[in-house]
Amino acid sequence: LGTSLRGTLEELRGKSRLTEEDVQAVVKEIQRSLLQADVDVSLVMELSDSIKTRALEEEPPGGTTARDHVLRIVYEELVALVGDSTELPLEEQTIMLAGLQGSGKTTTAAKMAWWFSKKGLRPAVIQTDTFRPGAYDQAKQMCERAEVEFYGDPDAEDPVEIARRGMEETADADVHIVDTAGRHALEDELIKEIEAIGEAVEPDRSLLVLDAAIGQGAKEQARRFEESIGIQGVAITKLDGTAKGGGALTAVNETDSTIAFLGTGEEVDDIERFEPNGFISRLLGMGDLKQLTERVERAMAETQEEEEDWDPEDLLSGTFTLHDMRKQMNAMNRMGPLDQIMDMIPGLGGGLMDQLPDDAMDVTQDRLRRFEFVMDSMTDAELEHPRAIGQSQIERIARGSGTDEETVRELLQQHKMMERTLKQFQGMGQGNMDMERMM
Ligand code: GDP
Ligand code: MG
């Protein structure tokens, strides 16, 4: 599937004008991917129309090939389709979760609390589900694992009363996350209950929690919850499974909201803030976004320095010099963190990156800047053979770059670590999936 989009794009290479058939071929492949990811047909059609109209009517900016032009339009329209991330100020607030039973509300409540606690806030989860047996224990255990405050009452029967008391009991917390009951199907009773809880806790925002596998059912759910409590954001759960979550876009569209969080597992830290790039790459299949973004970035780059013409797959062959590291750092500035880039390389995605030491790929923006200065002060020979750099050179480089010896050593250390890491990948790139050795 991903290959056919790539193939179609390849066929456009070298063309200076696109015909209607060319555009149609690209649109067809995108449609295929999106429909397979459960994106609603009418949304797919809207997107297709915009792409077609723009690709045929807009003039490619100077220096842009027809292929890059269409890619840029495709990418922009996909970003418009999935939308921005729901704004979540890091301040005191009450968030209520809504959704059907099993959608992942309780798990998401604990995960979000974990997330807020990592941001330095003090969250509390209030569990109001009196409907599902074991709901109290489940929520309590998850909150223990997330190490966040929890309020619930296994003996109480009135969810509204639990919610009210929960807000009082956890008054010291900054972020109140109110978990609610679900039902197997949308019922008036469920809607009435959540409305009443909403009146009791007065949430700043309510999020609709949806299973990634949701298809057309998303529309009706979204509409009902939107009418009763108002939905400001969506959390998509179970993205670690095969479902890509495209159905949730229907809910986003229906509620005129955005996506806030993605759930990617059963543990409390299996949560990500929604981010359009990553989600689009999920919808289309990993390899494709890499090609899209690379192309788009290239098309939009004002100067096309040779240095920037960098392909992550190059890392999988040959030696890794400081020249390579620098290219990779520049590319990272444009494309996102290296671990995400590595995820886009077919065959290297998935959980492999998780198995590497945390700091193996950690180069923060600030370090990147300092490393740039250091590398500016190195000779070509030093960039090619960093292992040969000795103490006197370190001193000279530190002086010349206006940094210090420690920074130079840190850079050399970082290079060594990346080199080691990439060596492991090189083995795998050649089809040597020896997991034992990786560990
Ligand atoms: P609720 O009924 O809406 O509160 O849903 P729960 O939070 O109880 O989740 C229902 C089931 O889905 C539980 O078994 C969870 O462990 C599981 N679950 C929730 N979120 C995720 C996720 O992101 N990934 C996976 N694999 N399972 C999840
Ligand atoms: Mg629950």
Which properties best describe this structure?
alpha/beta, 3 domains, Four Helix Bundle (Hemerythrin (Met), subunit A), 439 residues, binds guanosine-5'-diphosphate, disordered C terminus, 53% helix, Rossmann fold, binds magnesium ion, 434 Repressor (Amino-terminal Domain), flat, eight-stranded mixed β-sheet
A few lines on this structure:
It is an enzyme of class 3 (hydrolase). With 439 residues, the protein is α/β, with parallel strands linked by helices.
How would you portray this structure in words?
The model is unreliable at 302-308, 346-360 and 429-439 (pLDDT under 50). It contains 19 helices and eight strands. With 439 residues, the chain is of the alpha/beta class. Strands 3-2-4-1-5-6-7-8 form an eight-stranded mixed beta sheet, sandwiched between helices. Guanosine-5'-diphosphate binds at residues 99, 101-107, 182, 209, 237-238, 240, 263-266, 270. Keywords: Cytoplasm, GTP-binding, Hydrolase, Nucleotide-binding, Ribonucleoprotein, RNA-binding, Signal recognition particle. It is found in: Cytoplasm. It is an enzyme of class 3 (hydrolase).
Task: Furnish the topology, listing elements before pairings.
Elements: H1 2-11, H2 20-36, H3 41-57, H4 66-82, E1 93-98, H5 105-118, E2 123-127, H6 135-146, E3 149-151, H7 159-169, E4 175-179, H8 188-201, E5 205-211, H9 217-228, E6 233-237, H10 248-255, E7 258-263, E8 271-273, H11 276-284, H12 286-300, H13 322-335, H14 338-344, H15 365-376, H16 380-384, H17 391-401, H18 405-429, H19 435-438
Parallel strand pairs: 1-4, 1-5, 2-3, 2-4, 5-6, 6-7
Antiparallel strand pairs: 7-8
Residues 99, 101-107, 182, 209, 237-238, 240, 263-266, 270 line the site of guanosine-5'-diphosphate (GDP).
